[in-house]
Amino acid sequence: MSRFEKFNEMLFESYCKKAVSNAAKKERQKKAARGLMEQSLSELTDAALYGVVAKGGEVEQPEEPCQIFYVQEMNIPVYEPELSKALSYLMPKDREIILLYYFRGLKDAKIAPLVSMSISTVSRRRRAATKRLRELIENTS
User: Fold this and answer.
1) pLDDT confidence tier of residue 60, bands split at 50, 70 and 90
2) Which helix (H) or strand (E) holds 77?
3) Which domains does the chain possess?
4) Which helix (H) or strand (E) segment is 41 a member of?
5) What pTM value is reported for the model?
């Protein structure tokens, strides 16, 4: 095997190790983030466990009033009345960007193809819409 082939083999091996390492790191981060959102079954009380399931075996929905926004074939519930009212005053594309970014946790790069805009446009419109939301909520309070 020539020096050139050995060098290429070392580069490829290094690349593969880094790719696997990054994939493992990303999965650990996802798992850690999911752990913050989920509650352990061992921490739940019996009342909470059995109170969620109805007699017919169907899961009961919470009785909190909410407004549901339909965005990109997803239903996004907003439980805060002031926030949902302020969101309804936004332009539809801006509302869509805000809901996808803050409520679905998507990044600008993932939102851009969904709304057929460039990443910089999504970022700019998100910042402007967030500012407008703050103004609307402060004015209604």
Assistant:
1) low
2) strand 74-78
3) 1-60 (no CATH), 67-140 (1.10.10.10)
4) none
5) 0.54
